[in-house]
Design a protein that fits this description.
The complex is a heterodimer of chains A (117) and B (111).
Chain A: E1 4-7, E2 10-13, E3 19-25, E4 30-38, E5 44-51, E6 57-58, E7 67-73, E8 76-81, E9 90-98, E10 107-108, E11 112-116
Parallel strand pairs in A: 2-11
Antiparallel strand pairs in A: 1-3, 3-8, 4-5, 4-9, 5-6, 7-8, 9-10, 9-11
Chain B: E1 4-6, E2 11-14, E3 19-25, E4 32-38, E5 45-51, E6 54-58, E7 61-66, E8 71-76, E9 85-92, E10 100-101, E11 105-110
Parallel strand pairs in B: 2-11
Antiparallel strand pairs in B: 1-3, 3-8, 4-5, 4-9, 6-7, 7-8, 9-10, 9-11
Classes of the chains: A mainly beta (117), B mainly beta (111).
Chain lengths: 117, 111
């Protein structure tokens, strides 16, 4: 199956710092990548859709200046949490949509646990 | 009403039991349906993908879609403790629309 690599798996940072999370598709090209946030025992909450070479589309209520998304190539998207605060602590997951396998199957990264002190 | 409804559980079964996980959906335009398994603090893993109605079997897992009743099911035969995880159903329309996820059902298989 398709492999999506997400790094780091865990990050602890001080309040006010910025954190970058990387999502890479290792064996396929991803036209579109998605970023989710997940709270404990809750389902995935879509934050934004990232398309290669264009601006990300953010879901309602998600601050685009807070959560910067860059999809610089067909295999890499990054999410930067700027000026992180404790309320940003969460589990962040990316998924990628293979370019040549139809638009439905999503393959997920392993997630990043962000803890802001 | 959420587009995809799923009972969050938890569901606890003994090892070897047949597990039935279910979702309902409201959008009749949904054409594809998926089940994902998610272990704690890991990303979801695609288990089953079904296009339109019907059954699909893969080892101990069977996915069923009944579009007439807008009902999605996942059956796990001979359940194992390693099946303990959260199972997420998902559905969507073709043509570049977003995939919609259910809330996920937490399953515990007791040895």
């Amino acid at each position: 199956g398709a492999v999506v690599s997400q790094h780091p798996s865990r990050v602890i940072c001080k309040s006010g710092t910025s954190v970058k999370i990387e999502c890479r598709s290792l064996d396929f090209q991803a036209t579109t990548m998605f970023w989710y946030r997940q709270f404990p025992k809750k389902s995935l909450m879509l934050m934004a859709t990232s398309n290669e070479g264009s601006k990300a589309t953010y879901e309602q209520g998600v601050e685009k200046d807070k959560f910067l998304i860059n999809h610089a190539s067909l295999t890499l998207s990054t999410l930067t949490v700027t000026s992180a605060h404790p309320e940003d602590s969460s589990f962040y997951i990316c998924s990628a949509e293979p370019r040549d396998r139809g638009s439905e199957k999503l393959f997920f990264g392993s997630g990043t646990q962000l803890s802001v002190l | 009403q959420k587009e995809v409804e799923q009972d969050p559980g938890p569901l606890s079964v003994p090892e070897g039991a047949i597990v039935s996980l279910n979702c309902t959906y409201s959008n009749s335009a949904f054409q594809y349906f998926m089940w994902y398994r998610q272990y704690s603090r890991k990303g979801p893993e695609l288990l089953m993908y079904t296009y339109s109605s019907g059954n699909k079997e893969d080892g101990r897992f069977t996915a069923q879609v009944d579009k007439s009743s807008k009902y999605i099911s996942l059956f796990i035969r001979d359940s194992q403790p390693s099946d303990s995880a959260t199972y997420l159903c998902a559905a969507g329309e073709t043509g570049g629309f977003k995939t919609i996820f259910g809330a996920g059902t937490r399953l515990f298989v007791k040895a």
